Structure formats: structure tokens, C-alpha cells
Amino acid sequence: MATTQPPAGPAGPGARPPRPPPPGQRVQITPEIAQQMAAKMRQQQQQQQMSAPPPPPISPAEVDFVEQPVRAKGSRVHVDSSAASNPPNASGKASDAPVASEKLQSVCNDINYLINKLEQHPEYAVPPPPTIMKPHRSQQFTKSKEDGNAKFKEGKLDDAIQLFSAAVDLAADRPPWESHVLAREELSLALSNRSLCFHNKGDFEKSLSDANAVVEIKKAWSKGHFRKGKALIALDKLQEARDAILLGLDFEPSNDDLKNALTEVDTKIISNHHAKQQHNKL
């Protein structure tokens, strides 16, 4: 395809801008245009840096504690236990800094988690930028999910549960530098499907456990609240089921599944109430 440069339009105030190139033709980015784009990007970066909030101040106790020795043990990082338990302050005396200790231990845990990921996946020699994701994991997840759906339609619930469990593992094992949004989407979908399989199999406790996880991961998704409500109804925990369904309706008031589930649980509550009244009369 030929590369063309748009003709220069008339200069001066009030001049009409040049017409865009016809479809199928590309505009050549000249050095002048490239410089203008780079200058605009630098200006945007400077504006973002100027508008960014300042970092929170670090307390003296945290500064003193961070300066305490941190030893590398094998390929792992851990906090010196004596320093972590009672770090000294600026005067050299022991000070109470449990917050600093917890923060540093949390950082060490994150570092060790990243080390474990890099050891499990040696192909990730250096963590790539967050926007770069290798497609094979998403492809494997999609295949496991679709195969699970097929087994569910065939009534092979055990096989479907196994495939959805594989999809859950794939989503949960995403490297920490990849998109958390994608991991949440995948996890909530696979767990919701597995919850349905457990429900149809009659294992309502496991169905409820998966539904609770879906609500925790993606609270605004009505499907998680619906799965939770249905599992609680099956366990005869009607008031809890009603609360779960009402919470889902707060996020999606027009959801028909939740409306029908609310009607179902209200009918059961009224029926149980009438049954108790009849029993008390005997």
C-alpha cells in the first residue's frame, strides 16, 4: 500500500484544516509531526507528575526499623526477628513499632511471592509491563471453561467440576504483574459455573462456598448473589438467602433471576410460618 503525505493546507488564521486522507491511505508521520507528538506527550507527563499527590510521610519509627538488617536466606528475604520484634528509635532505646514491623514483613512477603512466581515460570526472566500478557493462559482458561460448559450440558457434572476447577487454577495463578481485572473476571466466571455444578449435584455447602467467593471477588455482579441465594435456599437458610438476594437486587434491580428467587424464598418463608402456626394449634 502506498504511503502518502497529505497536502499542506493554506496557512494563517481562519484557514481551513487539510482534508483527511482518503480511506485506505496512511498519513506519513514526518519528523516535524513526531516532534510535536513527543512534545505533547512530555507536556502530559509533566502535568500528571505535577497533579500527583505527594507520598505519605514516613514516621521516625519506620525509618529506624527499615534501616535494621534484612538478611537474604537462600533465595528468600526475611526480616531479622530481633529487630522486627523491638526496633530501636533514634535515641538507641527500644521502641514499640508493630506497624512498621507489619509493613516491612508484608513487603518481604510480596517479594517472596514474586520470587516464587519467577522460579515457577523461568520464561519470565524479567516481569513484563502490566499491559503485556501472554495469550496462552487466556486460551487455556477459555478452553477449560468451554469444555466445562459442554460437560455440564451433557449432565456430566463431575467432569464439568474438574474442568471448571482447572479454569479457576489458571486464573488464580496469573503472575502478579498481569491485569488484576482480568483475573477477577476469569475467577468469578469459573467459580460461578462450578457453584452451579455443585448445586445441581446436591452439594449445597460447596455451592455456597464458591458463591461466597464470587461475591467477594466481584460484588457488583448479580450472578454471584443469585448463586448464593439459591444455595442458601437449598440449605433452608431462608432469611440469609433473602438478604443475599436483596443485596443482589441493590446492584441490579431489574434482574429477573433475582426477582424470581426472591419470590421463591418469600413463598417458602410464608409457608413455613403457616406450618408453624398450624403445629402450635395442635
Automatic annotation (TrEMBL):
SUPFAM superfamilies: TPR-like
Bias (Pro residues): 7-24
Entries under Gene3D superfamilies matching the protein: Tetratricopeptide repeat domain
Region (Disordered): 1-101
Coiled-coil intervals: none
Xref: SMART domains: TPR (SM00028)
Alphabetically ordered keywords of this record: Repeat, TPR repeat
Comp. bias (Low complexity): 34-51, 81-91
InterPro entries given in the database record: TPR-like_helical_dom_sf (IPR011990), TPR_rpt (IPR019734)
One of the record's GO molecular function terms: Hsp90 protein binding
Repeat is among the record's keywords: yes
Record-given protein name: Uncharacterized protein
